[in-house]
Amino acid sequence: MITFVEYPIASEISDSYEITVNGKRAHAVKTRVSAMPFNRLWPGKQRSLEQTEFVSYISISTDEQILDFTITPAVAFKEAVIRPLSSGVIAQIKDGKIHFEIHKTGYYTVELDGPHNALHLFIDPIHNFDIQEDTDSVCYFGPGVHNVGEMRVKSGMTVYIHRDAVVYGSILGVNVKNVKILGEGVLDGSFYERETESFLLGYDYSRVPDASWERKQMKNIIDENADCFTDVSTYQKGSGTFIYRDNAQFNKLLETMQPVKTGLNFYASENIEVTGIIIRNCAGLSVTQAGCKNVHYKNVKLIGMWRYNSDGIDFYNCQNCSVSKCFLRTFDDTICVKGQVGWDTMSSSNILIEECVLWNDWGHTLDIGVDTVAPEISNIIFRNCDLIHNTATAIDVGNDDRAYIHHILFENLRIEFSQYDLKPVYQSTEEMLFIPKKHTPALIAMFLSCGSWSIDNLYGKIENVTFKDIIVFSDDSDFNSTISLKGYNEEHNIKNITFQNITHNGKRLSTPEALHINSNEFAEFKVL
Fold it and tell me: Are 126 and 1 a contacting pair, CB within 8 Å?
């Protein structure tokens, strides 16, 4: 059986592709993404549409063993590539049509003559959510369009989004437990326009240095609402604070800071399950949790992220969480494990990222830091993922504060570089234009610093990090990427770093020279 979406908004049906799957017509949906790696610090207004483009996607649920695709693009093309390359799916081109078979569920992308105007294929197993829509604990969004704005969930609540539904809104949970967000429909964040003084999340900005842009942004509010935050006159540097005290206090904090209403946001919550949905068009951080435990994402798709600071999934001071079998395409760091001021009595630990397909349009694809205001960040596993597009760095471990980062595993990752990769550029003026320059992203970067992202201005450590069975694909015959390791001093260093079985286009890179490792005297590593 194959189930197709009956998308409820006719004007958003894509005319870029005609698609059949096992002889049945499938309609793609269009959504906007970033067209170029051109970014800047928040300028008080959103990105120009001239920096964006449309892509298409289809969403299918199936239990069939073979899916036979025939795709007819609306424009002429010469080359068709299907990613991830590790899938081994090869396009056959004849008479302007593309033919291929897919033998397993997952997330695939069809690219014609490069990454622009791509077609994303979301192929999920059939879910039996068994939702009873007439119960008090269920918020059921059936087929059609729903405008809800910011939705506040309560403990024990289930939100269900039918596959033929589009919900214009965001979901916020504060001190909630046992919440489920299920379905195969769309949660669309385009209802909200980010304003000049809107923050990206609720945190303790009173501890932020005076020179920071966040402090300047909130200068008219802090004196009137200081009881929401830390009394910095008594704060012991490096001890951490926890801003959540009770619902009334935290609601006042949220009212004061007015965080961006976007995607999913959970604070001080436990036992959250998110399965199946498509999250789209967010105005800031797409999926964020701070001070949470047991938050799990499966078969979730993020697409349409082109606005400033549209990270993918961010874990701030969270524990016992996972992201499994998801697709993320983001215009900022894609999956991040961090520590943030105000939640920093808690460590980030025991987080598993596995079997995901990731496309990064700006920044870092797999990221620890650079916000590291936490006692520890430890026992983090990134395993069996495909990084199909990368910009600045595929894998980044950046410690810009006091956290002790240790026991991190990057294993069985497949990282793709292509001839179409462009150098990321910061936009410094309104008049500045993006000039494309070819570029190979860095493979791995690790560093210790106390720079613009530091809060306590205390140096941390990085220890016991393993990179194992990393496969790099590229259009170049030679390995042209880099690995950088930069410790700070003898005490605040990087040590016990292992590179094991790193290959490029099937060739093992078994020496520091072959891996292009650039390190200083405060970094210790071995290549196996």
Answer: yes
The DSSP line for 314-335 is EEES-EEEEEES-EEEEBS-SE
Residue type, 359: W
Q: What pLDDT sits at residue 222?
A: 56
- The amino acid at 448: L
pLDDT at 225: 53
The dihedral of CA 119, 125, 129, 133: what is its sign?
positive
219 by Cβ neighbours in 10 Å (0-12 / 13-18 / 19+) ranks as: exposed
For residue 327, the cross-strand partners are 301, 357
Unique residue bearing structure tokens 């808690």:
346
- pTM score: 0.97
- For the chain, which domains are there? 2-125 (2.60.350.10), 130-183+185-301+311-326 (2.160.20.10), 350-428+435-528 (no CATH)
Q: Which residues of the chain have pLDDT under 70?
A: 213-214, 216-226
Distance CA 471, CA 372 (A): 28
Structure tokens at 301: 């798709």
Q: How far is it, in rounded angstroms, from Cα 155 to Cα 171?
A: 13
